[in-house]
């Protein structure tokens, strides 16, 4: 890799670290190309990306950024999973993939500038995703309106039941 390619790689990594609220450092030793490509596809589906890069270039890219806390994790053959929109979904994909492929190990992460240990990344994966939280919030907003409609509808429904019962008695 010549100097121009290294500069371009550092620029791309810097951009990724800047845009991504979540960056997970993983050790991928022993995974083959097909497995890495499968992981990349799964991460791409949840607006994530999996990048294998040289540790020295990644170290240069994180200097002075909020991702600088992962500098000590960049030892050995590591790759970085970036989550650009939903950090929980990316953590879930990595956790599930690591369960199926024991050779993938999560070393740690940075989430909005805060360092996370491997156990904390697994805890992040157990949280509801952004879409699940939105659905819960909408249900919460809907509940008072539903109760109000039920309350307003109750007298009319009771009147209909009384009239129906009266018509049954006359028949």
Please give the share of residues in helix.
55-70%
What's the CATH topology name of the largest domain?
A: Alpha-Beta Plaits
Could you give a short account of the major beta sheet? 5 strands, antiparallel
Mean pLDDT: 88
* CATH level 1 class label of the largest domain: Alpha Beta
How much is the radius of gyration in Å?
26 Å
Number of DSSP strand runs:
5
Main structural class = alpha+beta
Q: How many discrete domains?
A: 2
Strand content: 15-25%
Indicate the CATH architecture of the largest domain: 2-Layer Sandwich
Number of helices: 6
Describe the structure in brief.
This protein is of the alpha+beta class and 171 residues long.
Description:
- The chain has 171 residues and is an alpha+beta fold.
- The protein has 2 domains: 3-127, Ribosomal protein L10, N-terminal RNA-binding domain (Alpha-Beta Plaits, 2-Layer Sandwich), CATH 3.30.70; 128-171.
- It contains 6 helices and 5 strands.
- The protein has helices at residues 3-19, 33-45, 55-62, 87-100, 118-126, 130-170, and strands at 22-27, 48-52, 78-83, 105-111, 114-117.
- A 5-stranded antiparallel β-sheet has the order 2-3-1-4-5.
- The radius of gyration is 26 Å and the shape is elongated.
Features:
Alpha-Beta Plaits, alpha+beta, 2 domains, about 170 residues
List the helices and strands and how they pair.
Layout (H helix, E strand, L loop, with lengths): L2 H17 L2 E6 L5 H13 L2 E5 L2 H8 L15 E6 L3 H14 L4 E7 L2 E4 H9 L3 H41 L1
Antiparallel strand pairs: 1-3, 1-4, 2-3, 4-5
